[in-house]
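This section describes the prediction task in plain terms. A model, or a person checking by hand, is given the sequence of a single protein chain and must write out its three-dimensional structure as a string of tokens. No templates, partner chains or ligands are provided. The sample shown here is typical of the held-out split.
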Amino acid sequence: MIGKLVKKFFGTKNDREIKRISAIVEEINKLEPEMKKLGDSDLKAKTIEFKERLEKGETLDDLLVEAFAVVREASIRTLGMRHYDVQLIGGVVLHEGKITEMKTGEGKTLVATLPVYLNALTGKGVHLVTVNDYLATRDRELMGRLYSFLGLTSDVLYNNMPMDKRGAAYRADITYGTNSEFGFDYLRDNMVSRLENKVQRELNYCIVDEVDSILIDEARTPLIISGAAADTEKWYKIFNEIAKKLVRSYETEKIKDVKKKKEMNIPDEVWKDYEVDEKANN
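The expected answer:
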């Protein structure tokens, strides 16, 4: 009864979160007229301004409202797409490290540009994980125009990518790829003998598309690193010749009591190379 009254007057936790984030969205919307007045060069210069403010001690949360307003205006100019309020809400949720659920066609790809741009301002790299190579390539080609307009670099990982290009992709501000590409690179980096051979940077910020599929369904399949087998034919031949020279110890294997066998002090010449226990198959 008390719980129902609390929900009636104060709303559910989700209602309170939406209300809190809606206030942030209102602040972003207030900056829209100001952003529209900026020329392309002035809008691009905002990225440099944000980075300088970060160096002076401001946080990403301090920049969120302005950064999101800049991304929305840049998206209109480069892609012809404007972020709706609900997409701004999704962007805030993702920036805060939470899960946001959106139906197909509601613009998840566009939503991701908001927190991706904001977190890429640190210069530490942002990863965007997709479920397949097609989506990774498509999203990077489309949204890469927006990031490039704002002065950020982006790249995409693909199967059988040369290691030098793979390292360059990770050095970009924003890196797209599938969960397996990121996962295998992590495993390979932990096997290198020299630090300079690593391709990944220190992990910073990541957005996972279709998180339920990647972290639950895909997680059932382990990532295993395997290498080409060495040429061992000559060793098989050598061990085969050695095995032919071994002599079976028929006399000692007749004694089944191991303790008694140790106490008998059997002469060395009676012992041969091996015994066979047919019952135990060894």
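For orientation: The mean pLDDT is 88.
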